Amino acid sequence: MSGGEAELIRTYFRGMTASQEGVVLGVGDDAALLRPRPQRWLAASCDTLIGGVHFPEDAPPEAVGHRGLAVNLSDMSAMGAAPAWALLSLTLPEEDPAWLDGFSRGFAALADGHGVALVGGDTTRGSLSITVTVLGHVAEHGALCRGGARPGDGIWVTGTLGDAARGLECWRTGPHPLTGDAAWLAGRLLRPEPRVAAGRALAGTATAAIDLSDGLALDLSRLLGESGAGATLDLDALPASDAFRAADGEVRHMLHGGDDYELCFTLPPAAEGGIGEIQRSAGVAMTRIGTVDAEPGLRGRAGGAVRTVEPRGYDHFGGTR
Predict the structure, then answer these.
(1) pLDDT tens digit sequence for 68-112
(2) Does residue 315 form part of some domain?
(3) Distance CA 76, CA 70 (A)
(4) For residue 148, is it within any domain?
(5) DSSP string across 88-132
(6) Does 184 lie in the same domain as 103?
(7) Whose CA is closest to 75, among 121, 43, 110?
(8) Are residues 253 and 292 both part of a single domain?
């Protein structure tokens, strides 16, 4: 293809706008024109993914497209927001039609599944990186935030933990193509499922929430810091998938591994009786893993013994897991 940037955008990305309400003018002009819903706050999230840092450089392009959008949808879920529009800035080392076709299909499939319209962005040449901004709606005064957890609240997570971290190890060590449990775990890394329905089901009930991008210990510590509280985790209750157990996954993967993009949230005791209905609405299992404490810091209990849990995880500027 030799038509340059404008042709690249028309070929791979212009068709992702049409179905979403509120789009007055989408891809193709200097800026998008959007019509927010009345009596809703606008939620906005932006993430950058770098090849070789946030995903393996040899990952399938469909998975890279999916993941590029999924991490932002996960932020929307943590706020209890409904995603609506996305902007994509894509930096490529070269114009590769086969890679672009796969990337755009992966991005579009997830966008269609959540009613998200691509309304603008940019393309440029350089080392592979993907920056996505997602805008969504949340009811006025109804957003989930990190700062509302209170002593006595239960700490819960959606889904299972540690799969992506163990999957990254499987991907790195091979052999390729991966099969069986290793392939399933790598899929959890490359194609995370944003818990949008769970976030919306929890809005108005959960006292605080955060998505687990950098590891349970680090992300939960961030939530607790915003809430001015501490917590004690039941390490024996951390939910693990069958594939994780079969692949000899360890507690360190679950506490410090990151990239699962599950939700961690807190519920007051009076709300825990309704968790069954919330799970049915969200379509995902939820597990109670601890309790918010007044004493600062994060602790873990296993086999009757309590120990300090260090808030380690992935941090671009503070060291890695």
Answers:
(1) 999 999 999 999 999 999 999 999 999 889 999 999 999 999 999
(2) no
(3) 10
(4) no
(5) EEEEESS--HHHHHHHHHHHHHHHHHTTPEEEEEEEEESS-EEEE
(6) no
(7) 43
(8) yes
Statement: residue 52 has pLDDT above 70: yes
CB 254 within 8 A of CB 185: no
Distance CA 109, CA 123 (A): 20
For residues 155 and 230, give the distance between their C-alpha atoms in angstroms, rounded to a whole number.
Answer: 11
Q: How confident is the model at residue 181 (pLDDT cuts 50, 70, 90)?
A: very high
Bridge partners (DSSP) of residue 46 are: 133
Other beta carbons within 10 Å of 57: 11
**Reported pTM:** 0.91
| Distance of alpha carbon 147 from alpha carbon 224, whole angstroms | 7
Give the separation between CA 296 and CA 275, rounded to whole angstroms: 27
Does residue 147 fall inside a structural domain?
no
Residue numbers of the domain that contains 243: 154-308
Asked if 166 and 133 sit in the same domain, the reply is no
Number of domains the chain contains: 2
* Model pLDDT for residues 120-176, shown as the tens digit of each residue: 888 899 999 999 999 999 999 899 999 999 999 999 999 999 999 999 999 999 899
Q: How far apart are CA 258 and CA 40, in angstroms?
A: 31
**What pLDDT does residue 316 have?**
52
How much of the chain, in percent, has pLDDT values that exceed 90? 79
Adjacent-strand bridge partners of 264: 157, 210
Instruction: Note whether 135 and 167 are same-domain residues.
Output: no
Name every residue whose Cβ is closer than 8 Å to that of residue 40 and which is 6 or more positions away in sequence.
137, 138, 139, 140
